[in-house]
Amino acid sequence: MKREKGLLIVLSGPSGVGKGTVCGALRKEDTDIRYSVSATTRAPREGEAEGVNYFYKSKAEFERMIQDGELLEYAQYVENYYGTPRSYVEDMLAAGHDVILEIEVQGALQVKETFPEGVFIFLMPPSLNELRSRIEERGTETADLIDNRMTVAKEEIDLMDKYDYVVENDEVESAVERIKAIVTAENCKKDRLIHLYKSLVEE
Amino acid sequence: MKREKGLLIVLSGPSGVGKGTVCGALRKEDTDIRYSVSATTRAPREGEAEGVNYFYKSKAEFERMIQDGELLEYAQYVENYYGTPRSYVEDMLAAGHDVILEIEVQGALQVKETFPEGVFIFLMPPSLNELRSRIEERGTETADLIDNRMTVAKEEIDLMDKYDYVVENDEVESAVERIKAIVTAENCKKDRLIHLYKSLVEE
Asked: Which residues form the Guanylate kinase-like domain (chains A, B) (predicted)?
């Protein structure tokens, strides 16, 4: 039995927790999930590619997209814009596909206003010390920026209450398994299925 | 991170849908789930064993257990009693283990009154014709009893609204995978975890 509309799944969490790594590992699995690609004004990191990790935009292009309502959500984060192009997400959901957005916490809360029925997953570091180590290992940030990120991370963890699920990113494989389980379970939610089953009784 | 109290998972659905088969297959999997064994006054079916499928009781013994408050729920169903011994379930939950009850629909709704925080899964046949075939194949029922079961099944499907999840028992393996996913997802629910994580921020 196929429901008419797909699930919107929002994977978020503090910067540095490993959202990109977890989402990348999930994409390698054999699932029917579709992945939204965000737009950003930040520079590509080594190994990242246009249209795969992000659509890389100039500040002027990004602001034009905001003006024209082409973004489902956007946020400015450590001097760069990040946003989700609206049309891909809406088309996939309408076609009955589950779609995952991997986005920053500010953006996730914006999406929640438009899609309260979405499934909001907070990816959590095993500890704040571990989060700091991961940001430091990335080696792309100055000490001041790292301190700033840690302050923001604590504020973001306080926003966990707005989410439906918390997944600890202790090991990437375990986090991926838990996210897949959440998607499977959400597709078994009675509220999403009951109208399909009521007709069975009238056979 | 381990939460203090386990999840109570209630697997129910119309008689004949295959609750016993699905639960049996789930027990063979490597999980941390504990299985409650019900008491019943019905005669053992071929291949069933005392303390594994059920605790088999006389009517008098069962009624003594009801009197003494030793049952979490009980129901009379097609002339037999079925019930869940209370102490095992409460002990396992208190020790932090997830416990599955495989019970009839009437009993599930009783458990919901005592454990509204439980996870209620409705096992659904692919169709009513398929349900009738499964009951007929079992070969333990007269034609009148089968008609009676089908009427009850339709009433039970109308009670699906009281459940949290609906799992279609199209293939036993798929049903088992979905139930495992539901247990994993429920253990990631923010409401069950948030108090454990708030302390992280105060490190």
From this structure: 6-184
* Coil, strand or helix at B64: helix
Helix, coil or strand: residue B40:
strand
Per-residue b or e along B170-199, where b marks 16 or more CB atoms closer than 10 Å to that residue's CB: eeeeebbbbbbbbbbbbbbbbebbeeebee
User: What are the boundaries of each domain within chain A?
Assistant: 8-36+97-201
Q: Which residues contact A141 (CB under 8 A, 6 or more apart)?
A: A135, A149
CB contact under 8 A, B182 and A188: yes
Q: Domain spanning A8-36+97-201 has what CATH number? A: 3.40.50.300
The strand pair at B38-40 and B80-85 is best described as antiparallel
Please choose, from the candidates A102, A83, A87, A88, the residue with its C-alpha nearest in 3D space to the C-alpha of residue A42.
A83
- Tell me the chain A residues in contact with residue B184 when contact means C-beta distances shorter than 8 Å: 177-178, 181-182, 185
pLDDT 10s digits, B97-133: 999 999 989 899 999 998 999 999 999 998 888 888 8
Give, in degrees to the nearest 5, the angle at Cα A184 between A178 and A185: 85
How far is A163 from A157, CA to CA, in rounded Å?
10
* Local structure of residue B202 (DSSP, 8 states): T
Instruction: Tell me if residue B124 falls in helix, strand or coil.
Output: strand
Choose the closest CB to A182 out of B165, B185, B203.
B185
